[in-house]
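Example record

The entry below shows one chain as it appears in the dataset: sequence first, then structure tokens.
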Amino acid sequence: MLTKKVPIPRARGNKKFNHKKNKKTYGKSVDNMSRMIYNDNNLTKEVNMWTIEFYKKSNGEKPAKEFILNDLDKKMRATALALISRLKTEGNKLSMPYSKYIEDGILELRIKQSSNIARVFYFFVVGSKIVLTNGFVKKSQKTPPREIERAKEYKKDYERSNEKNGKQKN
């Protein structure tokens, strides 16, 4: 039995979908598109790449990674991965509306998909490294202070554990 592929509708406008022009994403799921966006950006801009690392708690959990993979829906996850890829290429040059300084070396990655808003906190480490600490879905105008405090705690813990590891190696 023959089945007909139905084109993915365009996000804006009522123009007819041109599947010849959009062969790469035709018939793909949002997860595959997010992987393609993430991989394409990594392959095309390899100059001055930053290293992205997820903060790892003592029990092995990675709060930011678990937030992105488990708590966000497909479209938000695709947006988050694209923004992380952009952070990886632009590093400390990424600014508003994608990134904003909060306090004490903590910055936020500002993820927005239609009316949904999420934030992922991160900080920079000497040697072109970016550490993603934790994230949350934003429901009010102000960022919850407990989320900022959690990011600060994770940063201090990361710095303490790396200081110990550095001393042990010498």
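Notes for this example: The chain has four helices and five strands. The first helix runs from residue 30 to 44.
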